[in-house]
Amino acid sequence: MVGFKPTDVPPTATVKFVGAGTAACIADLVTFPLDTAKVRLQIQGESKLAVAAKSAQYKGVFGTIATMVRLEGPKSLYSGLVAGLQRQMSFASVRIGLYDSVKQFYTKGSEHAGIGSRLLAGCTTGAMAVAVAQPTDVVKVRFQAQARAEGGRRYQGTLDAYKTIAKEEGIRGLWKDNLPCHFTSAFGAGFCTTIIASPVDVVKTRYMNSAPGQYGSAMNCALTMLRQEGPLAFYKGFTPSFLRLGSWNVVMFVTYEQLKRAMMAARGSREAPF
Q1: What is 158-169 written as a DSSP string?
Q2: pTM of the predicted model as reported, rounded to 2 decimal places
């Protein structure tokens, strides 16, 4: 197999932290069009105009991508990429890169960690990651949701989005979500996870993208969707979500392992005597 061979020295916390963030960014670069297609499908039908329309603007994952390219250009598939990379660098670095360190903290250095310590470490790093990365997630979704073909854009750039949201909606606008949404959509992997987490992910996207006062809470957003669009609305964007989940995890963890080995090999070569 092509790649760096494992080293005898275990990777340091810094290597894990930087490696996880970098690998997540690479995975995001590969799968970002699927994520954008997912967001467009999830918010479709939200406005009264779209609900009243006879036919949907987007149909299926590849139809959505093709429609976006035709109407808005290929660059639209990567709208919000800057915020997306900021999110991955902050979220994955904490959630994955610090997991082993936090686990060792709870086990007081013991090599044998029980299921309780693992769950506690996972919840701790997950909560820390959400707290740090939440503003980047809100901005990413806002950019992915805005269609260039509709006319004026909500934000002129990533920095402008942070400033505008904070100015118009307050600092809380950058943390527009609730922890249960994140934890529910973050647990597990694969097809079953997509089935379980899809309704929460759709509500999260709608709520993050909503104008001030549109929804009273995430629960109000869910009830409004159910009343106006029916239960199937909770599974909009299911296919791109499933495709992105699988491909993102493959790219991320393969890259993560290679980056850890490369960084440790580089460190070893610097420290090796001549």
Answers
A1: HHHHHHHHHHHH
A2: 0.75
